[in-house]
Every structure is written in C-alpha cells, then in structure tokens.
Amino acid sequence: MSKDILGKALLDYHNLEYTEDIITHSSLDGEDSLPLPYMFRSFEQMPLLEQIALEHCKGTVLDVGCGAGNHSLYLQDKGFDVTGLDASSGAISVCKQRGVLKTIHDDFLSIGGQKYDTLLLLMNGIGIAGKLKNLDRYLNQMKSLLHPNGQVLLDSSDILYMYESDDADGGHWIPQHMDYYGEVTFTMTYKNEESEAFDWLYLDFNTLKRAATFNGLTCEMLKQGGNDDFLARIYR
Fold it and tell me: Please, are residues 68 and 89 in contact by the beta-carbon 8 Å criterion?
C-alpha cells in the first residue's frame, strides 16, 4: 500500500489529530469502518482470543503486523524480548514513539537472519497471505524464522456464513470464480485518500490445519471464539 493509509491514520491519532476513522471497502460486504481508538486498545480492551495468545507467548517474539504496537508494548512490559514488524512506515513510527524498543519496517516475506521462539499474527494476521495459493510460502517463511521449539500464534475467522443463500436447505452460494471463499479484496479510504486494492485472506481452521500438515507443521486450536473465529498454535 504505497500511500500508507493505515500509517497516516495511526500517526494522526497518536498526535491527537483524530477527526475520522478509516473506511474500508471490501469485495464481500461493501463499506465498513475501522475505528482508530480500537487500534490503540489496552490488554483489558482486547478480545479474549488476543489475550489468550499473549498469555501463550514464550521467549523471543516477533509481532507480525504490529500496527500501533499494542501487543508488543504489553509483552515488552512483561519482560519479553519482542520485535514489532510492519510494512507500514507510519505504524513503525507510532510504535517507536510509544516506546517499542525493537522494530522492523519491512515485508514479512523479506526478513531473515534472525530466529524467534514465538511469531505472533493477531487481528487475522495470516490475512497478509492474500490468497490461499500463497499460504504455503508464508508457512515456510514462518518455519524458517522459528527456533526448533518455536511456535506461531495466529487468529483467523471462517467467513463461510457470509455466503448463506436464501434456499430452504440453508446452503451456501459461493461465486464460481473464487478459488476459496475466504479470499477478500479491500481498499481503504482516509481523509479523501484511497489505498490501492489489496488481497486479504480469512481461513477456516481445517484449511489452515491441512496446509500446516502439508508443510511439515503441526496445527492445533487453542480456543474457538464465539463468532466463527479461532486462535491456533502452529509448531514443528
């Protein structure tokens, strides 16, 4: 996202220049908003799945897609050696200003040379894969970044319910052009600027588990959420 819509919005909020939220437009359900105060939430304000994920972290942590740094700051305060990673320069700037000690401004697939005990991908962080066909590449990158006893903690959502048809049998209607129903295309607008379109992936647990197994990894569900979402742990 060359315009860094997210980064600009996070910087505005952090600098007390908050006047509006990010508006998202998706190929699935039209227009929605991304409230900026939510991007600066405390541990007590986080959803249960996020809280459980943070409590399961161990050792050195890479917070992938760290955003404004909420998870990194919480772990850092608990004594963890945590690094925040984000492709948004604005997000990384906010993290530094808020006190995150270690940050990386880069794309997840581009980093290397360092290994971690925990990779943290929250707020549907696996969405960065974009398409199901890219998932193997991302899982192998995770494997390359993990210590032998390392783990990946990620949450995602099964969005099949969004394709419910009006048929009496309660089935689902999925467009034939789609390779997988969890593939969604987004754009974001903020203060009259619009981002480039980008792909985002939502996974059901069984698909994630099969992909992990195919790539020599074990995937287990740590917690099932109440809205077709889940928290998973992946390890060698």
Answer: no
Which H or E run contains 213? helix 205-214
From the list 50, 16, 53, 62, the residue with the least C-alpha distance to 36 is 16
The CATH number assigned to the domain holding 113 equals 3.40.50.150
| Domains identified in the chain, total number | 1
Give pLDDT tens digits along the chain (236 positions): 458 999 999 999 999 999 999 999 999 877 999 999 999 999 999 999 999 999 999 999 999 999 999 999 999 999 999 999 999 999 999 999 999 999 999 999 999 999 999 999 999 999 999 999 999 999 999 999 999 999 999 999 999 877 765 555 555 555 666 779 999 999 999 999 999 999 999 999 999 999 999 999 999 999 999 989 999 999 99
The overall pTM is greater than 0.85:
yes
Tokens describing residue 35: 């409230």
Any alpha helices (H) in 56-108, and if so which ranges? 70-77, 89-98
Range of the domain at 132: 5-235
